[in-house]
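Problem: given the chain below (182 residues), write out its structure.
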Amino acid sequence: MIMRWAACKYGIDENVVRAQGWIESGWLQGAAGDTRSSQAQCVQGSFTALWNTTISEPGGSTVSCPNCCYQSWSLWQTKVYYEWMTWPQIMQSTAFGADYRYADQRACMDGALYHLLRERRPATEHLRGRHSQLQEQSRRYEHGPGVWGCIGMHFSGTWYDSGAQTYIGQAQNAMLTEPWPH
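Solution.
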């Protein structure tokens, strides 16, 4: 129901939400990913909660990473290193994880993150001169280029680069095969 709620709230196909959760974590809320062994890749200013620590998760399990960290957390693997203000809610609450992830997705689809992509090349070639067109398509088409570009951006941090395109293909495949429990 949380996936359905987030999809409805942000106007995103429910199976897009399911597919992304499946490829990111196999639908495990407490999933920890993107292991890093450099303190510089684990500490963001005064945010040190992930570095060299044992983290108690809901349900009683623990995640330990001596001299390392997991940068990404939740069913949708939000990169806490960059989104430090989400900690620890992103790990503790599926609803929070869904709300945060798909608020970001909607902001991207509405063009609010365009400024992040403006300076990147060649990825911005997909956007150059098309900002308002992408906004309009995103409003009209549930599975338009804005949806998939933003799904790929969640993975790679940019628009339609090779990593994003591979990730988009994985999400689209999961949508077709629906490997999750029914």
